[in-house]
């Protein structure tokens, strides 16, 4: 063999072995800041994944809608442009899996313990299974917390919502919830919420305190009501083809990393939300309202009919089984 041909062969072999040794990259895209419960758990997963696979996997976390906004990230996952996401459960409707919107039903979870009975039991597993035909595998549920409502006026009674434009996630249940209060829901990507509030394109919004604080929404909202009227959580999802294609000795340590990151996420979610609420109070730009028993009763009366109204979309059977499990 001529020297040049031999050198070319050697170079090709070297680049093949460099390619074979290159780590498997998991791009994990999300829309919140790195210091939220989801942001911190994504980082923790990345660290554990690299450790447990001994560097065979590298996780690149892209927070704060840096790569994609809400709807685009789901498309990117299906196309394989990213491998992992953790969208809120309110955002699966556009994928054609409406059942996750059951998590948005007002007052459906009386406590976190009640919620875990659903997410960690057969209902939670069956819901994740529904993603498989969409080319998506569900790995875990992650927490955020119960939501507060905000606006530039006090929101103490349902009548206070009349005529307000309220930013929501793209969930028909949340749409119905705002309408039940007499407000006009506006579905906007999370990355657009702060700006829309700032310029007055919308009047108010809802989110757990950790999201409100880290997006600085409290700086442009004069009033926050600690209503805890609904829940916001996530499903961690991967591109199914990518996941199924991983060798077993890579997938198993990744599953372990996900289990540990999930435990960590649940440990920090409540604390982070409490700290965020405290920080909102301390910032002094927002008046924080706590509802009296009478006001709470009025909210429930206005919002509970949304369960019945959403039966045709989500399924009466599912709503009933969540209600009877979440006690
Ligand atoms: C929102 O859009 O309000 C939230 O879903 C953002 C998030 O991912 O927590």
Protein architecture, described:
Pfam families: DctP (PF03480). This is TRAP transporter substrate-binding protein. By secondary structure, this protein is of the alpha/beta class. It has a single domain (about 1-325), classed as 3-Layer(aba) Sandwich (D-Maltodextrin-Binding Protein, domain 2), CATH 3.40.190. The protein has 14 helices and 11 strands. The chain has helices at about 5-20, 35-50, 70-80, 110-120, 120-130, 170-180, 190-200, 210-215, 240-245, 250-285, 295-305, 305-310, 310-315, 315-325; strands at about 25-30, 55-60, 85, 135-145, 150, 165-170, 185, 205, 225, 230-240, 285-290. The strands form 2 sheets. Strands 7-6-8-5-9-11 form a 6-stranded mixed beta sheet, with helices on both faces. The radius of gyration is 22 Å and the shape is globular. The mean pLDDT is about 95. Bound molecules: (2S)-2-hydroxybutanedioic acid. (2S)-2-hydroxybutanedioic acid (LMR) binds near residues 31, 169, 190 and 211.
Structural class: alpha/beta
Tally of domains = 1
CATH class: Alpha Beta
The rough form would be described as globular
Largest sheet: 6 strands, mixed
- The CATH superfamily is identified as Bacterial extracellular solute-binding protein, family 7
Strand arrangement, major sheet: 7-6-8-5-9-11
Count of DSSP H/I helices: 14
The CATH architecture = 3-Layer(aba) Sandwich
Helix content, binned percent? 40-55%
Provide the β-strand percentage band: 15-25%
| Hetero ligands | (2S)-2-hydroxybutanedioic acid
Distance from first to last alpha carbon: 77 Å
Question: What's the number of extended β-strand segments?
Answer: 11
Whole-angstrom Rg: 22 Å
Order of helices and strands: HEHEHEHHEEEHEHEHEEHHEHHHH
Given as residue ranges, the uncertain stretches (5+ residues, pLDDT < 50) are: none
Mean pLDDT: 95
Protein name: TRAP transporter substrate-binding protein
Organism: Massilia soli
Pfam families: DctP
InterPro entries: DctP_fam, TRAP_DctP, TRAP_DctP_sf
């Amino acid at each position: 063999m001529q020297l040049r041909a031999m050198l070319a062969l050697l170079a090709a072999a070297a680049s093949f072995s460099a390619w074979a040794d290159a780590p498997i990259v998991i791009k994990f895209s999300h829309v919140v800041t790195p210091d939220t419960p989801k942001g911190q758990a994504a980082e923790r997963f990345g660290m554990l994944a690299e450790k447990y696979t001994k560097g065979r996997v590298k996780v690149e976390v892209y927070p704060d809608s840096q790569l994609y906004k809400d709807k685009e990230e789901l498309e990117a996952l299906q196309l394989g442009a990213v491998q992992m996401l953790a969208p809120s459960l309110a955002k699966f409707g556009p994928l054609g899996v409406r059942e996750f919107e059951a998590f948005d039903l007002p007052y459906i979870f009386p406590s976190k313990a009640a919620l875990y009975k659903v997410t960690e039991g057969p209902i939670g597993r069956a819901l994740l299974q529904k993603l498989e035909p969409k080319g998506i595998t569900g790995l875990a549920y992650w927490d955020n917390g119960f939501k507060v409502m905000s606006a530039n006026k006090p929101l103490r009674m349902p009548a206070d919502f009349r005529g307000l434009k309220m930013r929501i996630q793209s969930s028909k249940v949340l749409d119905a919830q705002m309408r039940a209060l007499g407000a006009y829901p506006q579905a906007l990507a999370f990355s657009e919420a702060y700006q829309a509030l700032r310029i007055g394109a919308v009047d108010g919004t809802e989110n757990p305190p950790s999201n409100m604080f880290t997006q600085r929404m409290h700086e442009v909202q004069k009033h926050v009501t600690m209503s805890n009227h609904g829940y916001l959580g996530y499903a961690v999802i991967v591109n199914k083809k990518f996941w199924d294609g991983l060798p077993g000795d890579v997938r198993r340590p990744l599953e372990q990393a996900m289990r540990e990151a999930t435990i960590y996420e649940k440990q920090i979610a409540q604390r982070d939300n409490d700290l965020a609420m405290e920080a909102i109070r301390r910032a002094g730009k927002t008046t924080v309202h706590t509802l009296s028993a009478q006001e709470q009763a009025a909210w429930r009366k206005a919002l509970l009919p949304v369960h019945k109204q959403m039966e045709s979309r989500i399924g009466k059977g599912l709503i009933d089984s969540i209600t009877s499990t979440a006690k």
